[in-house]
Recover the amino acids of this structure.
């Protein structure tokens, strides 16, 4: 156990790469180049070890057992809650609800807060660049309640039109739910301004932090968002684990989500009283192993230093953008001034899927398609893009390989 | 005539053609070339009901039943998928419903293209094979009902 994390002074990408065993493998006889980090990041050895260690040495159910294993498991499990609280600077650990991921976090709010507070003719505001997981739960809710979904438009660079957003806000607006960093474009949205404007009209704000939590410093108190949802697996942690942050007074007032064990205080057939926060929203045996290993991922980020990570990723983004722009017929989709290390592009007359298959053939993993953001693709008049997204372990040499791979790909397809 | 040869014979032929390539690039160049040469599907067929659902690329597939054989026509907006389609048509078009239903299509594995059949939703190839077999099954049932 590391008592206090020492942040590295600068980033040595090669020593970081050695911590990620998968980066040693080959694909189609070529060294793996993993540029699909916005979908999920690879895991450092410490995360893998934490998973194995839990199952090897202290696998037990949490919270109720009085034996040693249960105590050890509970301590490790709850240590992740503290780490997550510090990671996003939440005011208290009771505000950290463990979920399966961002999607479940958003759904939790839609099914609890939403069902309690949204009425007919109320309005919910989202943006054009939302992932389907921040569209569909609100559509379901609007349909059920007769509420109205409003969409903030974007410009051709892929930036929210703030004036248009302010015009959408009214007394009818009950909720604003927007993405912090677009998974398809990389755009970093001005969360603080969005939240402040919404709060002026009395609306509640949820920030979808699926992409932002790994790239940006997250301070939910400074941002003043009411809810913030993110996933472990995009932060070098295991899949099936995530966090929903909610301001305490909302979480206390909201009805429960799932019923079952863990979330109750007392149960009789006449009446059940619910457990305190955060357990009120954590019915059933939780995802103990992944929750425990998630702390190792957060430790990895803290030790590497978020500033170091951000600087490294920005360098990669600028380098990739510059190099990609040299390729004739290539158009970058999403050219916002504020961007995270995601670059989406199309190439004249070529299908993204063909490009993706041929890059995979060179060991380069990119994402192709609509990135679960079909309305956004429609806004740009395309059906999909090729997306390269960079993480702390990626290098400029790998970007050179991507460029060479693209040149070869274009030659093969033309 | 193509119809004279069995599915397995054609599959074997394709596998032999692919055995000549030493690199993945060569294989894909060949598939891309097949894709480019696939005759375009007439616009009248490019409607929603002929679409095979894949996540990323569009595939249109139509089938016609003539003299005990099924004839397929298909197209996609992605060229590698078109190349794969071209091979499936070469193997299955002009065969009898029974033979199509029973076809194992081992050649896909033999030429190293199994990844395109994976359940990744990334392309419509698996859905297309299913749809081709569904057509065969439908014609078979129709024929049995008539008889």
């Amino acid at each position: 156990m590391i008592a206090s994390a020492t942040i590295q002074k600068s980033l040595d990408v090669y020593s970081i790469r050695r911590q990620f065993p998968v980066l040693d493998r080959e694909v189609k006889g070529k060294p793996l180049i993993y540029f699909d980090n916005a979908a999920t990041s690879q895991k450092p050895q410490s995360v893998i070890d934490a998973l194995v260690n839990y199952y090897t040495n202290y696998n037990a159910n949490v919270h109720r057992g009085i034996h040693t294993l249960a105590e050890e498991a509970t301590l490790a499990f709850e240590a992740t809650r503290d780490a997550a609280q510090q990671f996003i600077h939440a005011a208290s650990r009771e505000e950290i609800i463990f979920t399966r991921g961002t999607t479940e976090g958003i759904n939790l709010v839609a099914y609890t807060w939403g069902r309690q507070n949204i009425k007919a003719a109320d309005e919910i505001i989202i943006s054009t660049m939302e992932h389907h997981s921040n569209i569909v739960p609100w559509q379901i809710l609007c349909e059920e309640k007769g509420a109205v979904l409003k969409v903030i438009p974007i410009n051709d660079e892929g930036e929210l039109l703030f004036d248009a957003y302010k015009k959408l806000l009214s007394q009818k607006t009950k909720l604003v739910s927007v993405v912090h960093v677009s998974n398809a474009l990389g755009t970093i949205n001005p969360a603080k301004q969005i939240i402040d404007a919404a709060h002026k009209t009395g609306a509640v704000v949820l920030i979808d932090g699926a992409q932002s939590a790994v790239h940006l410093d997250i301070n939910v108190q400074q941002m003043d968002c009411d809810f913030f949802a993110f996933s472990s697996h995009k932060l070098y942690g295991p899949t099936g684990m995530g966090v929903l942050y909610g301001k305490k007074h909302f979480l206390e007032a909201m009805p429960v989500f799932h019923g079952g064990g863990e979330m109750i205080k007392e149960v009789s057939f006449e009446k059940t009283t619910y457990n305190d926060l955060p357990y009120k929203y954590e019915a059933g045996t939780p995802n103990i192993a992944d929750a425990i290993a998630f702390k190792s991922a957060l430790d990895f980020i803290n030790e590497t230093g978020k500033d170091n990570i951000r600087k490294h990723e920005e360098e990669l983004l600028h380098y990739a953008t510059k190099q990609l722009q040299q390729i004739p017929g290539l158009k970058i989709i999403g050219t916002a001034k504020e961007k995270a290390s995601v670059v989406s592009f199309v190439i004249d007359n070529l299908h993204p899927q063909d490009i993706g298959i041929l890059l995979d053939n060179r060991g380069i993993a990119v994402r192709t398609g609509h990135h679960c953001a079909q309305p956004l693709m429609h806004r740009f008049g395309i059906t999909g893009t090729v997306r390269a997204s960079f993480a702390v372990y990626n290098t400029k040499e790998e970007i050179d390989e991507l460029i060479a791979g693209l040149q070869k790909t274009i030659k093969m397809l033309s | 005539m193509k119809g004279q040869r069995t599915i397995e014979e054609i599959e074997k032929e394709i596998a032999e053609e692919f055995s000549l390539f030493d690199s993945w690039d060569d294989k894909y160049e060949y598939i891309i070339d097949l894709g480019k040469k696939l005759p375009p599907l007439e616009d009248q067929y490019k409607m929603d009901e002929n679409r095979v659902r894949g996540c990323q690329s569009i595939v249109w597939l139509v089938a016609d039943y003539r003299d005990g054989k099924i004839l397929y026509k298909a197209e996609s907006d992605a060229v590698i998928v078109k190349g794969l389609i071209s091979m499936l048509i070469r193997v299955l078009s002009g065969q009898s419903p029974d033979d199509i239903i029973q076809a194992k299509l081992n050649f896909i594995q033999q030429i190293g293209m199994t990844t395109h059949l994976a359940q990744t939703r990334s392309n419509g190839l698996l859905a297309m094979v299913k749809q081709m077999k569904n057509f065969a099954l439908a014609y078979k049932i129709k024929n049995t009902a008539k008889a």
Summary: Residues 160 and 226 of chain A are 20 Å apart (CA to CA).
